[in-house]
Design goal:
single chain; mainly alpha; 6 helices; 60% helix; VanZ family protein; VanZ-like; membrane; transmembrane; Teicoplanin_resist-assoc
């Protein structure tokens, strides 16, 4: 196994690039979701799960696909931008998925809560569910394959030393004849 050329430097570049793209995406999401809308009327907040999705499906196939797709795709890039900004190649796949989905859900919840004070924007629990689903879908579709590719490199040779299980080192040493203080 050999260390890839610029091993530590490339990790820093991945983190910097991921951080920059993450901030740019969040600024775009903030502009899309938190700007006031000048509308003649506003529908009531939807706090019943799947009620908005059912209403979208009642509109017909193309309209439903557009509305549901917008919600799924809005935060989907976080599914790979958050791990990219983390910059680690060797992590538990399940742990990475759980951390990324939880962070995506919290960001979506924050957006929904901020929308309560924005004229023309309405809180919708289905947006939170669909945004979180989009983050999970993007993470599962992109991150494992990209991490495996980056660990292996173009020539198929392993570039990152994967951690090995360490042998147990035995019990903790004790010093005889040393009493415990009263």
């Amino acid at each position: 196994m050999r260390q890839g050329s610029g091993g530590h430097g490339s990790a820093i570049r991945f983190r910097a690039t991921g951080g920059f793209l993450l901030v740019a995406h969040l600024l775009l999401v903030g502009w899309i979701t938190l700007r006031p809308l000048d509308v003649p009327w506003v529908s009531a907040a939807n706090l019943q799960p799947f009620a908005g999705i059912k209403a979208d499906l009642a509109l017909g196939g193309l309209q439903a696909a557009r509305r549901i797709g917008e919600s799924v795709l809005l935060l989907a890039p976080l599914g790979f931008l958050l791990p990219l900004a983390g910059g680690r190649l060797v992590v538990s796949p399940w742990g990475s998925l759980v951390r990324t989905v939880a962070a995506g859900a919290m960001l979506s919840l924050g957006i929904e809560l901020l929308q309560t004070g924005v004229p023309g924007q309405v809180v919708d629990i289905d947006s939170l569910l669909l945004n979180t689903f989009g983050v999970a879908l993007a993470h599962v579709a992109v991150v494992p394959a990209v991490r495996a590719r980056l660990r292996r490199g173009d020539d198929g040779e392993r570039r990152v030393a994967l951690p090995r299980e360490e042998a147990p080192q035995g019990p903790t040493p004790t010093i005889p004849r040393v009493g415990i203080a009263p």
